[in-house]
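To whoever is on call:

I kicked off a structure prediction for a single chain this morning and the downstream step that reads the tokens threw a length-mismatch warning. I double-checked the sequence; it's 250 residues and nothing unusual in it as far as I can see. Pasting both halves so you can look.
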Amino acid sequence: MSLHCDLPAVESGEIAAAEAELAVASPEEILRFAAARFPGRVAFATAFGPEGCVIVDAIARQAVAIDVFTLDTGLLFPETVELWDALERRYGITIRAVRPAQNVAEQAARYGRALWERLPDRCCELRKVEPLRRELSRLDAWITSIRRDQTSQRAAARTVERDGRFGLVKINPLVRWSSEAVWERIRERGIPVNALHSRGYPSIGCEPCTTAVAEGENARAGRWRAFEKTECGLHARFSLLDTAKFPKES
């Protein structure tokens, strides 16, 4: 896959230099870099977690030219939809909905009822990964709200890196932050967050696949509780990350 604009291909050296320069930068500095380096070709994908709300706040306060979208799986909690509306009202922005090719009823007609109860990886692929792949094919870089300490798969994430799964640059402004730092920013600025967080849901995905977490459990223990699964597949890491040049021309 090649970049979809007139900018030159992003070399490994440039990514390494950006990572070195921004490794200790503030989220605001990182977002300004993203908007300047990939004008009109960068977007922020939010799932409305606390981290995502912090980044929405930063984008809106600075009025940086970064598109914001969310993967509307059709299975979101009502509280998540309420937060979506609250963020748009608070900041005067539009958070676009990116939806799967099939609605929930159409998916059930083809794959059977409640696919998430039988094949959660396939359901995530259809309702999250494939829609994201289509959306990212129009871009040269995407911004996420992941943190290193969330899961083992995210532990090696960097501030600026190449994304081998989707074939573009991935920028993670909060990758070094702790959960405590995120919540401190939320309290400091009065940033809206999901009402479910106060009811024992530290990590919130689709309603059928998310349960409350007991005291002492990992923050993501309530995600796909019946399965050995902690990720929907959006942030998987591949050996392609170590190729000499990004992206590779097809």
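Update from on-call: the warning came from a stale cache, not from the record. Cleared it. Sanity check on the structure: The CA atoms of residues 31 and 173 lie 7 Å apart.
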